[in-house]
Amino acid sequence: MKMEENDLKSLMITTSSSAIRKEFSESMQLNVAQVWPCRFCGIILGICHLPLGIILLIFDVVTNHISETVFAITASLSFIVCGIFSFISARRLDRPAQMLLLFFSIFSMTMSITMFVDSAALINYNCDRGECHGATSNVHVVLLCFGLVEFTVSFATIIVCFRSLRQAYRVRKASSPYSTLIEGHYDAFYITPRTINVDTKGSKCRTMPSCDQRP
C-alpha cells in the first residue's frame, strides 16, 4: 500500500510538472516577438503619422511667429514618434513595442485635442473682434485641421494597439485593418457571473443587498 501511494505521488508530480512546462512554453511563445499578420495596419498608420508630423513641424517653424502656440511643436514630435513606432510594429510584434505605440498614441491624441481647443478658442476670440480673416486666424485654422486629422489617426492607432494587446493578431484572417479591429480573441473579455446563495429554509438571502431593506 505504501509503495502504491509513492508511485501515485510520483505520477502526479510528473504530470503536474509536464503541464507546467507546457504552459510555460506556450506563454514564452506568446511573449516572443512575432510577425504581425496585419502588417498593412502598421504601415498605413506609419504613413499617416510620419508625414503629418513632418509637415506640422515645418509649418510650425515657418508660422510660429504668427501663431505663437506652444502645442504644435510638441504635437508634431509626438506624431513623428508614433510613425516610427508604427513602422517598428509592422516589422515585429511584441508587447513592449505595442505598449510604447499605445502610450505615444494616447499622448498624440491628447496633444491633438489640446491644439484643437486652443486654436478654436483663439479663432472664436478673433471673430468676436471682427478679425476672422486675419493671418493669425488663418494659421490657427490650419492647426485646427491638423488636430482633427491627427486625433482620428491616433484614435485608430489606440484601437489597433488595444486589439493587438488582446491577441487580435492571432486570428487566421488578419489580413486587413478591418479584420484586426473587428475579429480577435474574445475570451479575455469573458466575465464569470457572480453567484448568489439563498437560504430557502429561513427565507433569508445571504448576498442579495435588497434583503437588507426588508422589515
Task: Give a short overview.
Keywords: Membrane, Transmembrane, Transmembrane helix. The chain has 215 residues and is mostly helical.
Folded structure, characterized:
α2 packs antiparallel against α5, α3 (about 70-90) packs antiparallel against α4 (about 95-130) and α4 packs antiparallel against α5 (about 135-165). With about 220 residues, this protein is mostly helical. The chain has one domain (about 30-185). A hairpin with a 4-residue loop joins β1 (about 200) and β2. The protein is built from 6 helices and 2 strands. It has helices spanning about 1-30, 40-65, 70-90, 95-130, 135-165, 175-180, and strands at about 200, 205. It is flat and about 75 Å long. The chain has a two-stranded antiparallel sheet. The longest helix has about 35 residues, at about 95-130.
One letter per element, helices H and strands E, the order comes to HHHHHHEE
- Secondary structure: number of strands: 2
How much β-strand is present in the residues? under 5%
Mean pLDDT: 72
What is the share of helical residues? 55-70%
Question: Number of domains in the coordinates?
Answer: 1
Q: Unreliable stretches, pLDDT < 50, 5 or more residues? A: 11-16, 28-33
- Our Rg estimate from Cα atoms comes to 27 Å
* Main beta-sheet annotation: 2 strands, antiparallel
The helix-and-strand class reads mainly alpha
Q: Reading side by side through the largest sheet, how are the strands ordered?
A: 1-2
Gross morphology is flat
User: How many alpha or pi helices?
Assistant: 6
Distance between the termini: 60 Å
